[in-house]
Structures are given as C-alpha cells and as structure tokens.
Amino acid sequence: MWQHARASRPRAIVASLAALGLLVAACGAPAAAPSPTPKATTAPVAQSPAALRLPPLPPKPNVPSGPSLKWKFVTDFGFNGRHAPYFTALDKGFFKDMGFDVEIVKGAGSQDAIKQVGAGNAQVGFADTATLVSIRANENVPVKELAMVYSKPPQALYCLAESGMKTPKDLEGKKLSDSAASGVPKIFPAYAKAAGIDVNKVTWIFADSAALPSLLISKQVDCVSQFIVGEALLKKAAGGRPLVRFAFGDAPGMDFYSNGIIASDSLIQSQPDALKRFVYAVLAGMRYSFERPDEAAAIMNKNQPTVDTDVAKAETL
Hints:
Shape: globular
Strand order of the largest sheet: 2-1-3-10-4
C-alpha cells in the first residue's frame, strides 16, 4: 500500500473493491500505529503505472433480460479528474453491459451526494464514509456504503508555501475554505484534535468548489481543502508557486476509510443484485482507466471539457 498521499490514489481502489465487494453497512478501518506529529509535505512524484499490479476483476455477474435500469450516479464534488473511471465505464459501455442506462450528475460535496441518494434523486453516489456516518447518526438519512474506494483518508488542506506555514499548528488564526456541502469541514475537528490544533482558532469560509483554487492563489483565504488525488488541479492553478499540504491521514490515529459507492437502504434491500452489477461496472471502468490513463483522461475531457486532460491523467495515475 502506498504511504500517505499514494495510499488514497485510485490505484489502491481496485484491491479494496475486489476484496470488499458489496457491503451493506458503513465500516471502519483498522487502527494504525501512532505516528509523529505531522508536518506539511510536498507531493510525491507519480508512480509508473507499469510498477503497479492490478488484481483480476471478480466473476462477471449475470445480467437478467429486460430493459436497462435508468439510474443516476451523483459525484462527491463537482466533476474532477478523479471521476474519469466513472465516465470511462459509461463511455466504454461497461454500465450498459451490466444492464444500466446511467446518467452521471454533479454533486456539491459528500453531504449533498448522501442526501441526494437518501431522497431518491439519485440511485447511487460517491461519498465520504465519515460524513455518511455523521449524517446517518444525526439526521437519520437512510444511506449506506456499498464498496470502499479510498482505503486511506484523502482529505488535505493546501496552502501557498510562501505563507510560511510548516506544521498543522500554523493553521490557527487562518482562513480555510471549502464548499458548504463538503465533508471536509465536518471531519476537520477530528483532524484538529489529532494534530494539536485549537479548532476555535480556525475560520471556515464557504465558497463554490470551482472558486477554491482562485481564492487560494489570490490569497483571499490562507488554505483550501482538496483531496490528495486532486492535487494536480491546485498545482496547475498555482502556476509553479509551491504548495504545502496538511494531509489528514498524516495525523496520529487518522486512519480510516473514506469515499465509496453509496446507495439507499431501500435500494440495497430491493435490488442487491443490480447493485452488485453496478459495482462490477465501476470496477471495470477503474481497471480500464488505470491501464490506459491517457485514454481515460481524454474520455473525461470529452464528457467534461472543463477538466483538462493533463489534470485528469494526473488524477488517474
């Protein structure tokens, strides 16, 4: 398993999904050994795809005869390069082969995706587990994780290196930004406790997700949240100005499953076989994308032209 940032990259996904298969409850990660007080880190160089071995796909499910199921799949956070495997599954006909007519719609954050699925506006989605547990416990939203995608926490805060911030404690007194429906601000108090940050000395500024890079670069805020897998987007927006990263997964005890495929309790009970087929199609899209990142990036850009191919490829590697 890759360390820190790489542990959350999509290359780790196939093993996690193939091993876990279809789940019907939110689950937790095994406890990690305590680690030193985290420090800001820089992004590692992308590992060569040839150096990573992909496990085989699980047995292909049987598809019943009849019309395709028209399902909506809601993303966790807009349209980003990390969503290339889902658009690849759509483009290459993997969803169709499993008996689906899928529409991929844009979510405004994990909270939004969970509530959309809970309300029946989308049948399946991609959302953070910790956020789901919180919303289910506090708001009784009837949604569960089906299959884990990020086996390590991908959440992070990014700041300009010129700010001089070097340790999580330096976040005190700073303005942090994310979208209002993102799960990161909900998880931040746990990270703050683990990293020794006084959560009351941090100010959150909520903005549209598309505006976050410009808010950071223009110094309207001190740091913005972003998944480690999405680091390429911020680096491109920074235009060569170095960034520092405070990864939640670097803090002691912050070892937990993050984003996965979600569905409502009622759909899990009524159509478990269909959900297994959906997860299989997702797996097929991921495997294809990881083996052919250039093609997956082109597919993502074709479907969502605002996502540059170089960013999509970097988020798929």
